[in-house]
Amino acid sequence: DGITRANLTEFYQAGDIVKIIDSILRGVDVVEDILGISDILADEILIQSPLLNIGVGQNIELQNYQLVKLALGTSLNRYPKNHTWIIGKLSNSIDVTYVPDLVKVSAIIHDIEWVDPREISFPVIIKEGFPFREEVEQVIHGMDLHFLNVDLTHQCMTDLISFALLQDQYTGTYQSKIDWSIGPEFNNSVLELHLHKNPTVLKSLLQACVSVICEISMEKTHALRKGAGPNAEQIKRDRASAWRRDVDYEFHLHYWSRGNKCIFASCVTHNNFSIPDPD
């Protein structure tokens, strides 16, 4: 939705995505609103964090109480822990040769003012840890793309590949070498194989697409031929050549290459050598 509102549905750069996600993160509800917590009574609060100034313009006491509320929400299963990142700058006092993996929060809760009608026995002892990122770019790079897959439409699959490409580009190792698009049957082939319900294979498929776009490990790509023999003629149609890229042993990516552009045609099982038309 953010991409659409910003009128970036066709062409956008990495910096555009960062700005959009940053604005979304700054505009979402705060912890208290999400969890319905107005106040807590807590002591023995211990925050082990390598970050300095997690919240913009917040004092340390308010910042710590928000972390305690977040930890309380996850402890009571009110908020999904695996969807949470803490964003902030590394403190100057942190030894950069050893940076902890998590922001750790512990406390003893004696009372809560919130909208949850459930009875809670006090005191509640909480002990949680949250992954952190220094920048919005790191949030994007650490994002599990499978959770973005709510409704696997043609546009959604395009966005998934775009985000997978964006994640690799942030490492600085790979860059796009060719233009790309999705063919009319690509999305249906993914749905028919139920790959949208298999996070491991879906991730491998996205990485295969990125590898084609960035021309990585091209030894995993082979010409898709009319016959079984190695000397059989490569399938060609309307000046486009057909190719087959390994996703894993069971699944393979079929795509067309035409000049400086590739068209992802379908994802198929191991013994399927068919490919839909490029357009």
Question: Which short descriptors sum up this protein?
Answer:
279 residues, alpha+beta, four-stranded mixed sheet, 27% strand, elongated
Walk me through what this model shows.
By secondary structure, the protein is an alpha+beta fold. The protein is 31% helix and 27% strand. The chain has 8 helices and 12 strands. The strands form 3 sheets. Strands 7, 8, 9, 10, 11 and 12 form a 6-stranded mixed beta sheet that branches. A 4-stranded mixed beta sheet has the order 1-5-6-3. Helix 6 packs across helix 8 (199-214). It starts with a helix and ends in a 10-residue tail after the last strand. 25% of the residues are buried. The model has no long low-confidence stretch (mean pLDDT 77).
Mean pLDDT: 77
Number of helices: 8
**Helix content range:** 25-40%
End-to-end Cα distance, whole Å, is: 27 Å
Q: Which sheet architecture does the biggest sheet show?
A: 6 strands, mixed
Gross morphology is elongated
Structural class, please? alpha+beta
- The arrangement of helices and strands along the chain is HHHEEHEEEEHHEHHEEEEE
Q: Give the strand tally.
A: 12
Strand content: 25-35%
Low-pLDDT residue spans: none
Radius of gyration: 24 Å
Topology:
Blueprint: H1 2-5, H2 14-27, H3 31-35, E1 37-48, E2 51-52, H4 60-75, E3 86-87, E4 89-90, E5 102-114, E6 124-133, H5 136-142, H6 154-170, E7 179-182, H7 186-192, H8 199-214, E8 221-223, E9 236-237, E10 240-246, E11 251-258, E12 261-269
Parallel strand pairs: 3-6, 7-12
Antiparallel strand pairs: 1-5, 2-4, 5-6, 8-10, 9-10, 10-11, 11-12
